[in-house]
User: Fold this.
Amino acid sequence: MSGVLLKAIIIVCAIMYYTAFVTCFFKNRAVHILSLSAWGAAFAANLIIVVNNYLVNGYVPFVSMFQVLTFLGVCYTPIYVYFSLFRDGKWMRPYFMFAPAFIMTGLCFMDAASVWEYPPALQSPWFVPHVLMYMIAYTMGFVAFLICVMSLFSKKKENKLKLEEGAYDCICIVFPFMTFGMFFGAIWANEIWGHFWSWDNKESWSLVTWLTYMIYLHFRRNNTLKKYATYIAMLGFVGIIITFFFVNMMGGMSNHTYSV
Assistant:
């Protein structure tokens, strides 16, 4: 697939996600169907990009930032299906629509035609589970952040409590998946570098992020500190952004940086 065609699909995908998000607030049945249809079209387009990344490069598309972000966008829809079916989370639909729309907007400004080398260090059975655990954690971290922001502006106590509970449900997924991601990463590091932990920038910030979410979970269970939990959850997402994006800007200061 040419770079121009791929970029066009990315733009259409972003537009469809935004269309789904905006129209999901209308009560009209026809508009409701339009919202779900746009969401389905966006997910299909997003999946096409992921499959193309795999076919063009010939490996699981987790090597470059472009590949990881396109896969991250795909994660939101199936995770929402899980939440709506098993965790009474249908009300979270706007957040699961807006998050991939925002990600696809960023992809519109990235190189969509690149073929990335698959370094020997990544050719490990721990590579996919390590990255996949973090992708699920980051997916839910973004949703939890959006819900936390909305809870700060909510005037009704009942609605505020609902939002806080929703953020808590999300972070109850973030924390274990982040834990497993770190665990698999440590095993992988020992396999290729001979040690479980090296305290480079990516590892250090991932630990800071993990500890922040652990503090959040402790605050949630303490009646005195619970009022601060939302702010701690938002700090956790700041940690995700630093770990995922800003460490890359430091170049060779980390062994974990993605190519753009």
About this structure: Residues 1-111 form one domain. The mean pLDDT is 90. Residues 31 and 47 are 24 Å apart (CA to CA).
